[in-house]
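Lab notebook, page 48
Experiment: co-folding of the full assembly
Goal: obtain a model of how the components sit together before planning crosslinking
Operator: M.T.
Materials (sequences as entered):
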Amino acid sequence: MENFSDVIVVGGGPCGSFSALNLSKKGFNVTVFEEHDEIGVPCHCAGHVSINGLKNLGLYPLPKGIVENTFVGAKFYSPNGTVFTVRLAKPITCVINRTLFDKYVAELAQKFGAHYSLGTRVKSPVFAGRLVKGVVIRRYDKSSEFFGRITLDAEGISAGLLKQVLLTPPKSDKIVKGAQVEVENVKDLETDIVEVILGRNYAPGFYAWLIPKNEMESKVGLATKTGNPRILLQRLISKHPAVSVKLRTAKIIRESYHPITLGGPIPKAYTNGFLAVGDAASQVKPTTGGGIILGLNCARIAADVAAEALDKNDFSAEFLGMYQRRFMKMFGFDMKIMLKIKETLDGFSDKKLDNIIGLCEKIRLNEVFKNLKEVDFQGRTLLKLAQNPKALTLLAFLFLNYLLGKP
Ligand SMILES: Cc1cc2nc3c(=O)[nH]c(=O)nc-3n(C[C@H](O)[C@H](O)[C@H](O)COP(=O)(O)OP(=O)(O)OC[C@H]3O[C@@H](n4cnc5c(N)ncnc54)[C@H](O)[C@@H]3O)c2cc1C
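Observation: model returned without errors.
Model output:
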């Protein structure tokens, strides 16, 4: 293997591979380093994404087998078991098999010429003065240097490289611990909706989910700010009044544990010769923990900016700062709103969540969502929804509760 390419990509997850795909398409020479021997393995993600989000990225429809199911809505369980269901006219989200999805994006990148080096861990950056000009890699217990004109860091939440180039990693106090199992032999699933379970008993500081793959199989998971996610997940499966009934005879076929970053994008995702994308840059929705669509959008922007830098031969932080400005222009407003919603929800007691879900049901808020199309850019969606008097009632209620402080 030569030890130089125009672009180095650290991490063969969706964001790394999508950056690699976009840069290879433009004719640049790209090398992706992935520490695991197989792309997409191990998988730690539920893979619930918006169909529109994938379409806008040119990734939908996907090849057969990657989309496991599609959904027309969601059912919310409040802590005391009050249920609020939203059903739309047609599917707007889907669940993907993340292993197959990651492999697919990586294969596309390779088709356009990207080179993948699997089983290769990037250990540290190589500097020329203040410029990142390459990385130290470790493969088969051997370390060596590999050089590039620009490095894209898509290493996920671990952010080890990010710290070494002196960028601020995702805020640790905003990271929740995720746990998920895939189960078979599940009973009474409503296959066209996802279920969201709220409450401190099961998912303090976040929520739990049940995402059906088909009539018999489902992904069940949660993330939590405090406590042991494994124990909380066992409790959800065995004790939650609705979930435990469905999972009475279920058999766990896969389990995974991984953190989710909810603090919003890091303040600076670039430095000389270096851009960070995806979870490494905390480009994740603080409300839902969804990072695939935002991360892929940022990966595309990073590829555009990297291509311009390569054309102009300018890898200075001043020039690469355009990356942050572009992605903040795309979702900065939505991010502000999502962070506010998250902060507000975090302050609510279980009792207040019961009241809110009860109110949603009472005023039939589901009617407001009937024509909902956009779930990724939640600030804009909220502005649109707020034009409806029912949504306004709920917003006023939330605002009042927020003003009146924590219960
Ligand atoms: C439990 C859970 C459920 C989730 N559910 C959803 C969901 O339903 N929908 C959604 O949109 N998002 C979800 N997410 C978030 C989503 O998984 C991430 O936002 C997404 O995977 C980010 O992609 P990425 O490419 O930035 O990072 P990753 O997918 O983490 O990929 C990073 C890659 O880099 C590799 N790597 C790391 N360090 C190195 C190194 N030093 N050298 C070489 N390779 C390295 C890793 O092996 C990995 O392959 C969930 C996350 C969790 C934990």
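Interpretation: The chain has a mean pLDDT of 94.
Next step: discuss with group before ordering constructs.
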